[in-house]
Amino acid sequence: MNEIQNLWADFRLPIRDALYFVNGDSYDVTLASDTPGGWKVLAPFGVSDMLAREPDWTSEIDGLISMELGQGGFLWGGDGSYGSEGFFGRLAPDRSLVWAVFFMESNPFEDIQLFGEIATFTSTNGSEVTVDINDPRNPIPGNG
Questions:
Q1: What span, in angstroms and rounded, lies between the C-alpha atoms of 82 and 73?
Q2: In this prediction, what percent of the chain has a pLDDT beyond 90?
Q3: Domain ranges in the chain?
Q4: In sequence order, which residues have a C-beta less than 8 Å from that of residue 95 and are 6 or more positions away?
Q5: Residue 22: pLDDT above 70?
Q6: DSSP H/E element including 50
Q7: How many other β-carbons are positioned within 10 Å of the β-carbon of residue 32?
Q8: Helical H segments across 10-126, by residue range
Q9: For residue 73, is it left (φ>0), alpha (ψ between -120 and 50) or beta?
């Protein structure tokens, strides 16, 4: 198992604004309310390198909202160890991770709206992030 799978088994994620995939691929992300989707996926980084420098820099996550997917699995969102943290992601039917996004300053995610393969996650402070649930790296088209 890789680092993300090990952390997920304990319901933990690294404390970093990032998108994490079950295969270990990770990308820096940022909230960006002025862009379609409300966020940007940035450069890839190595979780192994990050955790080697800061092994305890992880947050316990707790789900506040979930939504079953017709094709199996579900979407899940909630909070981290600190009040400002939030996460959301897609899980397989056995609750194993497909992908997850963690934000240090979004507040907990408490609502999910699903439109086909596009989901919008909303946090307690009103932050909205819209993603393609099959691959959140895919850009969300703008409104004109």
A1: 27
A2: 91
A3: 3-132
A4: none
A5: yes
A6: helix 47-53
A7: 12
A8: 47-53
A9: left
